[in-house]
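Batch queue: ligand-bound targets. Current item pairs a single chain with zinc ion. No template structures supplied; prediction is de novo from sequence plus SMILES. Inputs echoed for audit trail.
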Amino acid sequence: MKFEVIKKETVMMIPQQEMAERRISSEIRLDPLTGRTARICHFMNLQWEKPDFNALVSGTESWCPFCPDKVHAITPCFPKNLIPEGRMQKNDMVIFPNIAPYDTISAVAIYGARHFIPMTELTPSLMASAFGFAQDFFRRIENTGHPESVYHIVNWNYMPPSGSSIIHPHLQIFSSSTAPNLMRQELEASKRYMDNHGSCFWEDLTATEMKTGERYLGRIGRTHWMTAYAPMGVAGDVLAVLEDARCTLDLTAQDFQDIAAGLSKVMAEYDKMGIYSFNMNFFTGTGTDDHFRFHLLFSPRTFFSQKLGTPDVGALQFLFNESICLAHPEEIRDTLKQGF
Ligand SMILES: [Zn+2]
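Prediction returned. Tokens below.
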């Protein structure tokens, strides 16, 4: 397992200090699987201001399509050959087709009736139920023999900085034969790694991270938690790898509880940094992808300038897909470890 880094140093003269020389270091890290690069730079204290949530959320219930008075009236229904009852329902959770589909089988799962749930109130039991319910949907699709029932993906945009246009907590869930870019690159690179090394990258990564401990947060059941070596988020990424699981359909109810427990610890620590928004994706193979392990990536989302509403994604990230992280993932791990 190679953790490659290219160290850089910038020299500048500072007029406020009689043109004293200042040296500023940065580094470029290569993702050990795909070689994707990430820059660790602009070192700063990872602390942001949370907004006035009352002002942010106030009034959004009146037009929210996911609130209980509307979700059963205005959201679309599945055709009878997929989900005969139209919308899936479990307690107050609902799954219905995404009116703006990303793929043939593209749905939305609502966490429940509550319109706004602060990040620290996303309890493990709530998240575990929602993930389990999403899996119920995937199994129903799988049982129809649909040709798109290949990769079963959960995407989570939580709160507006993450790309969510609706406050009401929900998951984007879809089944697709077309793996999204980074997942496809990981699947291909994992296959190459197994062909070249005769072992599974994800097992080797977990073993290495556990051994060095530099980025390893801990283990819950068969989930292994760590900060990513070459993160995509400005405040790092948290990676959870599932032992022995290749795909979303391999996960058990206990796995979902363990995933939810880990996520809630991570959220509690990021909350202390003033973070209140994140993306979380499932990365899945198929049931026969022995070279792959199911994993999820949690990436906190924030602003470069909160005052101006400047998002944490600029040209470097958006057009070059070159990410920037404002602290070393090993330091972020030490902060997050306090809650683990
Ligand atoms: Zn709502």
